[in-house]
Design brief:
By secondary structure, this protein is an alpha/beta fold. It has 2 domains: 166 residues, 3-Layer(aba) Sandwich (Isopropylmalate Dehydrogenase), CATH 3.40.718.10; 125 residues, Isopropylmalate Dehydrogenase, CATH 3.40.718.10. Helices cover 47% and strands 14% of the residues. An 11-stranded mixed beta sheet has the order 3-2-1-4-11-10-5-6-9-7-8, with helices on both faces. Helix 1 packs across helix 11 and helix 6 packs across helix 12. It is globular and about 60 Å long. The two termini are 24 Å apart.
Length: 338
Amino acid sequence: MTAAAEEPAIALDVMGGDQAPDATIEGAIGWARSTGQRAILVGDVDVMRGLLSSGGEDSAAWRLESGPTTIGMDEHPVQAVRSTRDASIRRCAELVRSGEAQALVSMGNTGATMAAGVLIVGRAAGVDRPGLAVLIPGREAPTLLIDVGANAEARPEHLRDFGLMGEVYLRQVLGTPNPRAGVLSIGEEATKGSPLTLAAAELLAASPLDFVGNIEPGGLFNSSADVVVCDGFTGNLVLKSFEATAEFAVGELRAAVRRRPYTLPGVVFMYPAFRAVRRRTDYAQYGGTPLLGVNGVVIIGHGRSNAMAVENALNAAARAVESRVVERVSDGLALIDR
């Protein structure tokens, strides 16, 4: 990866996401107006020109790269990335690999973005398995959970490396001082867990990290640790369980209010509190999740991302480039006795 310039070059997958290309272009314009920086826009050039003009922008002032094809959710991610040469996410990854961009941002197919990151951008020096990280809202501060889907199976040393990569991201990008690391397990006691988590705990305890031990799922919300590691299969199940539980709770609350109209005045008074909670847990506030361990910054946004989420994802990518996260991850892993 080339050294980061004063203004990071970020390739934005304009065609990716449920609300693309309108939301991605709107987010890119908002980011440009708030920071003075323009992302490299990758997608259908004619469509992008039209949307830029509609947004009051001179399209000639933007770098537009052709990548008109979108990889669908029903396609096999690895095969699609390899075979679809004009896919927008593939073109973004190629720009990073060539050094023309230092980061890519996509709200599209998560599997395809991960595949493009690993196969095209490539692994960073010293990294065996990249990991997908996500911020879980907590009482005091969000917790970074890694891995949530990049590796269905993992070895103990991979979980240790996830912890190191997550610690670098929290410290360098989010400004978390002295991040604490934990391993996701079925109990806080050091004797509880699977052979994988028990072995990973030993490696984490011997690493330079501030290891605080086992973390139960509830501890993700209690700020018991700043970065929590697990294999991608477990992490993905945890993440989807949290999302489904939240949707169920909100749905039940709405149904209960509809069944009891006399509670509406109370709901009105509670609305500011509900809005505050929603703001803290809104994925758009975080923008996207990083794929850590690849040779460039890769930020993957939620498929339902709106313009604000796109803008915040671009901000996250810029901070990661400016903080030299890729190089610092490699430097951190180089200190480990393998």
